[in-house]
Amino acid sequence: MIKIASLYKNDNINFIIKHINSNSLFPEFRDKLPVQELDYLKPNKYLINAIETNLKELDEVTFIKYLKAIESDYRRLFASISLPVLDCKTSAMSSLSKPLIGRDEELKLLEIFMNRKYKNNVILVGEPGVGKTALIREYTKKTSKPIIEVNLSDILSDTKYRGEFEKKLTNIIKETIEKERILFIDEIHILIQAGGVEGGISASNILKPFLTEEHFQIIGATTKEESKYFSEDRALERRFNFLHLPELPKEVLYKMFCKELSELENNELKNQAQMCEEFERLIKKLDLILPQRNYPDKLLDFLDFFGSYIKICGHDTIQNALNFFEKTVNSSNIYGEEL
Questions:
Q1: What residue stretches are annotated with the AAA+ ATPase domain (predicted)?
Q2: How many domains does the chain have?
Q3: Beta-strand runs (E) in 101-160
Q4: Do residues 110 and 190 both lie within one domain?
């Protein structure tokens, strides 16, 4: 079978023909497809539609027959053909292995919004690290529909020709409806700003007709700053429920701290006073080390580090592990912050 996706991106028609001839499973087609013939052939809409219908895979005989009938401006032709939705990487979101702590109200609101009959699409608004994706993963336990995450880079890449972006996005939407899925797009503001150039249709205008349909559901995630792009398009904004996720309060972080610590080996913080004192020191230190990051992300990041630390280094105090953690952050500067 010819791998159409790999040929699609190639600008050289000679390469395509040579690839077919040299790799053909049918000996009678080796060196039988003349290059010059293509320059004089007129486009045939019927054949273009046939290619579009069978684009995911064609046998070589059929593909060569179609190829002989296409116009010499092959790049424009191939750009007009719908790409299969599988060209965009999707992955089913798995549920959290541990129960989500501190988001009961937000989870209940998400369930209510998603169970509405018409306005059943949600935008999660919150800063990086507050737990937007974790909330979605917890919600997978509450719904019978699989939640599919789409990689934005796959939607936006290789869309320099008019119509490519629109067809990619439309294909994904149709696939979501047909297979009864929920679509999840992180940093959805990037998608909303895309399209609408050189006569193309913007993503927001593609989405609007589907957002009022009962069987299409989408969850997006964005930050407070980037959510302004929705307010610039009132017709789009009113089709979504906006669910704001602030940083978790300190009492919830303390519950997380105690729960994670209780699961670690060699934990000698037995009484409540010790736990509370250690927690306060940890929070103050993390605020100094990682001032630009949000809770619960930076707390969970350290606790994960601490769990690995005591497995490798043996029993030690949180303070010693925290000092080591700080050195690691300082030396690598992986968070791009002034420390």
A1: 118-250
A2: 3
A3: 122-125, 147-150
A4: yes
